[in-house]
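Input chain follows. Return structure tokens only.
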Amino acid sequence: MAFAAILVGGSVVTWGDSERGADSSAVAALLTEGVVQVVATDMAFAALKANGSVVTWGKGGRGGDSSSVADLLAEGVAQVCGNVGAFVARLSNGSVVTWGDPYFRGRFAIAPPEDTDVVHICPTSIHAFCAFKANGSVVTWGSPHFGGDSSKVAQHLTEGVVQVCGTNTACAALMIDGSVVTWGDDAAGGDSSGVASLLTEGVIELFSNYKDFVALKADGSVVTWGDDAEGGDSSEVAALLTEGVVHICGIEQAFAAIKADSSVVTWGQQVVGGDSSAVAHLFKEGVIAVF
């Protein structure tokens, strides 16, 4: 793996595995000033500069080589984001540009939108992206089986979408009326039919880990679904999640919920954090954040 740090003045320093983006020497002259954002795939980086241009480096096939779209990234870029193998840029005119591994960016699957009214972009899973449009609708693209194809629920995504959240291979959209729409890999949260009656209203925020979703409701309760063994099943701590929850933190196969009384509730795979019994006496009060 590799790191990239933005310094005061907008220069960039990189370190780590040279095969995964730590070696930025080829574009070093372009990273001496003006960088305002850096995003990454698993083997490459993209830096957005204050002048609206984008600089890329790292594994070419994973987004480090943007030469095919260089003319579109020379100016006017407003936002950049990445998934595991590709990048997408939102231009100031509301259009989008993608580059990197075709499997992850939609070239050989669901294609990105050609509209010019996109106001926000984000990765929805490791295989897909979504674009929020000015009218409140959402368009998705990427691997069709892992969140890129939302055609089965497209009629629900034409307006009023306020958040899209993803596991590795599925997606969930929070609607303005507090309901939730899901699609993608059924086993990783794409199928929420088992808790559908609890997701029709009152949801205020969505959280996820690799295979599971958590919906936080306005009354402080939570709803979970996905892979039962990795956090989708919270039945063992259900009595502690009926009220007072204010925030959720998800890691690969477990979740932690912070409650209004500053206590913490955990569930999921025990060996990766789902079991906090060894430190439970420290969680009874005074917790302000979990990462």
